[in-house]
Amino acid sequence: MLIGRSHEYAYLNEYLKRPGSQLVVFYGQKFLGKTAFLLDYCNERPFSYYLVVSGSEKQNLDAMEQEAEKLKSVSADEKKIFIIDEFHLLAKSPEFMPFCFKLMEEEQVLILLVSSAINWVECSMVRALGKSAARISGFYKCREISFGSLCKIYPDYSRESLFALYCILGGIPGLWQFMDMGQSLEENLIRNILSDKSYLYHAGYGYCLDGLRERGVYDTILSAMAKGCTKLNDLYHETGYSRAKISVYLKALMEQGQIEKVYSIECPGMENTQKGIYEIDSHFTSFWFTFIHPNQSALQMMTPEEFLRHVVGNRLGEYCSTYIHKVVKEYLLLTGVMETAPKGGASRFIGKKRSIDLIWRRKEGGYGMVWCRQLKAMTTYADYEELLMAAKEAGIRDGQYYMVSFSSFDEKVTLEARIKSNLHLLTLKDILAGF
C-alpha cells in the first residue's frame, strides 16, 4: 500500500463493494502519482489498463477494445477493474461512452476514467459527454500527499532538508522522483532544479498547465502574486489587465490547483476581516516565481552554484515561512492539540490590519491560535504582542496561543510562557521531531 493514500484506497473500496458496475472519474494534476496509485490498488485484483495515446479515435478504440477483451477472459469471483488513463483525449468520440456502458452491462466492473485535465473535467466534461454524464457514479480529485507521509517515505533524510524540499516541491510525488535523496538539499537544488541539464529547469511550473492558452498572462498574474499582490485590485494595478480578465484567469489557475482563494474563519470579529485573498498554493509555482522567473537573466549568466548562493541564499528561509503553517497544522493534529481539522477548511484569521496563521475552535471552549508565518531565528515578545492584538481584532479574548520560531525565543517571551499556561513556544526543530 502506497504511503499517504489512505483516503483514495477507502474511496475506491467503497465503489468496489457496491453492487453492479460503477463508473468513476479519478482526476488531478500531473505528477500526483495517480497511475502509480491505481496500479498499486489493482495489484492482485483482476484489472486491465489502457492509456489513451496521441492518434486517431479508431486506433485508440480498437486498442482499448482489445484490453477489454483481455479483462473479459479473466475468470474472477470479485468485481473487475478497467482503468482508462487520460480518457479526456478520447471522450469526444461518440463511441467512447457507449463502449463503457456496454462493458458495464457485460461484466461486473469498476471503470476508472483517469485524467490530468483538471480544467476540462470540472468545466467542460459534462457538456462534452451530454446525457451520458448522468451515469457517472462518482468523482474523486486526487490531492497532494502530506509532509508526514513524506517523512515516512524518506525516513533517513534530514528533517530540516526534507522540510525545505517540501516547501519547494509540495506533496507532488512525481516532482520528488526528480530528486536524489542520497544528495543534500543544496546538491538537489543545484543539479535537479537550477541546472540546465535537469527536467525541472526546462519544464518550470508549467509541467501541469496543459490546455491553458496565453501562458504570458498567467506568468504576469503569478509574478504579481509572488510579489505580494493578494487582492483583485492589487493585481489590476500591478498587471494592467482588466479586473474581468484577471478574474477569468484566476479561476483557471484555481481549477488547476495553482492558486487558492483564502477566506477568514468565522469568528466574533468578522467585521475586521478581509473578504478573501488570493495566494499561490502550488509550492513549486511559488518557488519558480519567487526565485527563477524574475531572475532568469541571472540564471543564464551564473552557474547554478552561484545562483543558489547569491539569489536564493538566505531568502530560502523566508520563502519556507510561506508554507510552514501547513506543517504546523499537521503537527498539531498529530499530537492531538488540534482535535480535528477546522470545519470547512478555513483555518486563518485574515484581518484588515493583522492576521493569525492558524486558528481553530477548541472542544474545551475558546480558540487555539498559531503565530508562525513570520518565521525568524528568534521570536520576540513584540511578536507575542502582535498575536494578542490580532486576537483582539478577531474578537477573541480566551485562547491558547502557540508561537513558532526557527530556533529560539527572547528572554521576555520565554519568561511569559513560564508564567502563563495558555502560551506555548515551539521551535521548528520541535515540530519536525514530532513526525
Can you describe this structure?
It is built from 22 helices and 15 strands. The chain is of the alpha/beta class and 435 residues long. The strands form five sheets. The protein has a five-stranded parallel β-sheet with strand order 2-3-4-1-5, sandwiched between helices. A four-stranded mixed β-sheet has the order 10-11-13-15, with helices on both faces. A hairpin with a 5-residue loop joins strand 10 (358-361) and strand 11. Helix 8 (159-169) crosses helix 15 (283-292). The mean pLDDT is 92.
Overall pLDDT level: 92
Computed Rg: 24 Å
Fraction of helical residues = 40-55%
Overall 3D shape: globular
Record the strand order, biggest sheet. Answer: 2-3-4-1-5
Low-confidence stretches: none
Indicate the structural class. Answer: alpha/beta
Q: Please work out how many helical segments DSSP would assign.
A: 22
Can you count the beta strands? 15
The share of residues in extended strands comes to: 5-15%
For the termini, the CA-CA separation is 20 Å
- Regarding quaternary structure, how should these chains be classified? single chain
**Major beta-sheet overview:** 5 strands, parallel
